[in-house]
């Protein structure tokens, strides 16, 4: 009897620890919905065959420090997270795009499902000649973000908006949004396909 109770308590302890371990990272998530991100397109059903990301659009979390560190080339849109590999599939360049105007001001919007101390939000755009039918690499992106919004360690609200001028581009491009977390080793990644 004593062994059964000990085994039961041990099992409950392991289950509780597992629950805490798996729910820890689930507390801080977010994604862009302006321009619409690939994970939102999967989450709202606009794009099909998306795997697990369709149920977890705000969960694209990976190592911070982009572009010097962070997800490997070809795995950037999924934040290096293999569970969401469908986000790195270029789908032959057929991801739906958001129409934007070169040089115009755009209001970027993040949906934050759990708040976290924030270093900044950064936006990168692909270089001229970008091929949307291939997985995204660092070499595809302009080396500097076209917009950086410092946050100084503050926690964002449920919705974060900030306006910035779009770069001078034409045709199909990809905007990579990176939300850098201040008090963990991670950042959130959002790839948005656009047409200038």
From TrEMBL:
Domain Chitin-binding type-4 per the UniProt entry, residue ranges: 29-194
Keywords attached to this entry: Monooxygenase, Oxidoreductase, Signal
Signal peptide: 1-28
Top-level taxon: Bacteria
Gene3D superfamilies xref list: chitin-binding protein cbp21
SUPFAM superfamilies in UniProt: E set domains (SSF81296)
Keyword Signal appears in the UniProt entry: yes
Protein name per Swiss-Prot or TrEMBL: Lytic polysaccharide monooxygenase
GO molecular function: monooxygenase activity
């Amino acid at each position: 009897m004593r062994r059964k109770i000990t085994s039961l308590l041990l099992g409950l302890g392991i289950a509780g620890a597992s629950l805490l371990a798996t729910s820890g990272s689930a507390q801080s998530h977010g994604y862009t919905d302006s321009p619409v991100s690939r994970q939102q397109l999967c989450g709202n059903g606009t794009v099909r065959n998306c795997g697990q990301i369709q149920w977890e659009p705000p969960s694209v979390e990976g190592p911070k420090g982009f572009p010097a560190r962070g997800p490997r080339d070809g795995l950037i849109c999924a934040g290096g997270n293999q569970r969401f590999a469908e986000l790195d599939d270029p789908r032959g360049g057929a991801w739906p795009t958001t129409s934007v105007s070169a040089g115009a001001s755009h209001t970027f919007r993040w949906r934050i499902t759990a708040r976290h101390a924030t270093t900044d939000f950064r936006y990168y755009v692909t270089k001229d000649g970008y091929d949307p039918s291939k997985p995204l690499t660092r070499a595809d992106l302009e080396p500097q973000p076209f917009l950086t919004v410092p946050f100084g360690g503050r926690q964002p609200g449920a919705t974060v908006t900030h306006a910035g001028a779009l770069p001078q581009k034409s045709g199909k491009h990809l905007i990579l949004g990176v939300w850098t977390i201040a008090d963990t080793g991670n950042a959130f990644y959002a790839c948005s396909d656009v047409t200038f």
